[in-house]
Amino acid sequence: MQEQFTGMGHRSGVGSPPPFVSQSEVRAYTPLQAYFLYRLLRLVRLRQESAEALKQEPWLRRALDKAIYSTFLDCAELGVGAEARLVLGQRNAPSPS
Questions:
Q1: Is the Cβ–Cβ distance between 29 and 80 less than 8 Å?
Q2: I want to staple 33 with a disulfide (CB 3.0 to 4.6 A). Which of 2, 20, 21, 29 is the partner?
Q3: 3-state SS, residue 6
Q4: Cβ(45)–Cβ(64) below 8 Å
């Protein structure tokens, strides 16, 4: 039996839902699905938080964009493409202060 997670380190029914789903849409994720969704979320946040520095280093911005795209494809292949699109949709949203 494969263990299911609702987020990185959160077994089904324990803890809060991952930030890429609403409270009403919580579902179980395999550890691999959760890993890649959180990796995508981390990369997108890194790009948001480093926007000014990335303007000075275009090669670094391109590398980060390629990592985001690659991780998105991994998510889609693992069956969590809808959640990955939600994370990417948050990409242009302002960061919480």
A1: yes
A2: 29
A3: strand
A4: no
List the domain boundaries for the chain: 5-89
| Residues pairing with 10 in the sheet | 7
Structure tokens at 44: 């997108």
Q: Would the pLDDT of 95 be above 80?
A: no
Alpha-carbon distance of 80 to 74, in angstroms, equals 9
CA dihedral sign, ordered 66, 48, 32, 24: negative
HSE-CB at 5 with a 13 A cutoff on CA atoms is: 14
How far is it, in rounded angstroms, from Cα 76 to Cα 12? 22
Rounded to an integer, what distance in angstroms lies between the CA atom of residue 62 and that of residue 32? 25
Q: Render pLDDT for 1-48 as a digit per residue (tens, 0 to 9).
A: 444 444 444 444 444 455 555 555 667 899 999 999 999 999 999 999
Token code pair at residue 62: 């391109």
3-state helix, strand, coil in the chain (%, to 5): 60, 5, 35
